[in-house]
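My main concern about presentation is that the manuscript never shows what a single data entry looks like. An entry of this sort, consisting of the sequence and the corresponding backbone structure tokens, reads as follows:
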Amino acid sequence: MKTILSLLLIVPVLTMATPLIPIPSAFPDYYYTNFNWDTFEQWHIAKTPIDPNNVDYNLLQAAIFFYTNQYRKSKRLKPVEFKSNLCSAAMHHTKEMGDKRFYDHVNRKDRSMRTVMDRAKHFGFYGGAVGENLALEFLIDYKAEASYWHEQTDGGLKFFYGDSGHNRGYIPPHTYLSLGKSIVKAWINSPGHRANLLEKEFMYLGVGVYVEPETQGNANIPRIFAAQVFGG
């Protein structure tokens, strides 16, 4: 079994609240056979700014999936195929991490779902090898550890660099395309995660994402859990 360490990003500490509810997706599973990175990158829907209160999980998962294959292609490797049961395993784990307040490959809250292999088998994948990448990323295009402040406007909560009331630049929301690329690039820059991305034995991939439960008073930057589950 192939399992690597998760990618932990330094971000503000958040408190527990009610999780956000995903909206109906613009990217149903059968679309995977109709797209590759080149067509997905040009699709106007993929360039939509992400609304933290209405995240299209499937669309972001697709961005991560296709950019992963684009990276594999750049290294002359075969693309991985979408596998719905691995997607279910990844989605389950991100939701567990968000709702039960942990960030780890090991789910100590549920013995039956403890490891990535347990989760893959539970959802019907019985291949000889599995691997998992994890990330926790901002939903806005924010440079980690920079000072920021936020303001409630008619268009929702907006974030700015600088101190309260001293605007040093608006921090825009990620698009589905830009966030998918950002997450995969972070994995590429981490040797253990990169090894999973480039593992020749892996033939299948499922991706799961889940918005971290929003903070009390909405004071901090919204984040999202992401997981890749590879199979071979």
